[in-house]
Amino acid sequence: MMRTPLLFALAVAGASHAAAPANVDAALAKAKRAHQPLLLDFSAPWCYSCYFMETHVLNGTEWDALGRKAVVAAVDADSPDGAAWMKKLAVKALPAYVVLDEQGSELGRILAEQPRAKFYPMIDRIIAGSNTLDALKQQAAGGSIEAVAAVLGAFQARDAGKDGLAWYGTLPAQVRANADKDPTVTLQRDRLDLSRARAQDDHAGAIAAARRVLAGDIGCDRPYVVDALLEASEKQPKAERAALLQPQRAALEAMLARDIYVATPACADQRSAVVTTADVDAALGDAAAEKAVLDRAIADARRRLGGDYGKDRNLADNLRVYLARAHREAELDALYPKLVAAWPDDYVYPYRFGRSLLERKRAAEALPWLEKAADKAYGENRLGVALYRVKALKALGRRDDAKQVVAEVLEQNGQWFPEQVAKLKAELAS
Description:
Keywords: Signal. The protein has 430 residues and is mainly alpha-helical. The protein has helices at residues 24-34, 48-56, 60-69, 80-88, 116-128, 133-141, 145-157, 161-169, 173-179, 183-199, 203-214, 222-232, 238-260, 270-283, 287-305, 313-325, 329-342, 348-359, 363-376, 379-395, 399-413, 418-429; strands at residues 38-43, 71-76, 96-100, 106-111.
């Protein structure tokens, strides 16, 4: 799972609503008939934020009330329909909750894991509003600083830094002069500049923008911006890079103490805070500190799970990642079968275990787990599982069986996901 300022794990609805629409077009038609907004809740079985959101946020009376105010449609990102709508709506980061009006115009979106106390006020404000992005742009041009901030936030949600900054440049000079004094606008412009610089491989620009963003109070987003700083500074001289990262180590350690290792964590995404802190320690050459932060996270996850891996899938998956990041492979190998047993109804953990074994040259052990995953896989993830089955079969000298796997999967998936199909065919041919 990549972790960048805009790449988060996916959230999935934790409750079902009556007469759930079969696809997004059907959901739009239902919203139009009901004269209600449409909340698209993109989901997939492989993302750890689904587990947090399902257990901690997308349930209870507030979720039920949301289902009365809007048509709610869970959209599987691994399905052809889901993939097409992600592309259409420029959903580049997960989780993404996109609200459309009954005509299909976007009212707003929410990204990333969110605590319950933040999620519902945010989604309620979007649903209560009647402003589409085009209307907000008109208000911004007329001088509304609040609308300027909202439009910049919309560009940020799309990871469209260059386009957002270009739009800002089209505003009347006096509007920009007033907006430049607003701290929210300033922060959003800096984040858009960071997005632009990263997209253009402008490392110096990314470092400068990241430092400006990190100088502010960005709360739970800090790990994502530090990740961008780590990436942009990778080729810098050791001493210069250390000077950039050292202040962030202190800030991240304070975040862990204040917002993560407390009875009620303020940040929903605890994993990124832990792993980013370990990455900073590694970049600074402090192996002892890197080990300590991972050891603490592993011990904390185990304590909270109490041996019940079906208790909290988000937390159980965090434990998996911490063990992998700490290279504690024997413990990870012991954990995987327990995760498979705790969550038997999807392909994810047998696939991850099979892939992990295969990457360590243990093809004979990997193949049964990959075949188990294939029984549950579908859509795009069926192709991903098939790719590693082919790798395992080739490693075992069973090329004819690999050909059969490819033929069956292509028959099942048809024309969907051409990029993944090309990778599968290339692996077979190599």
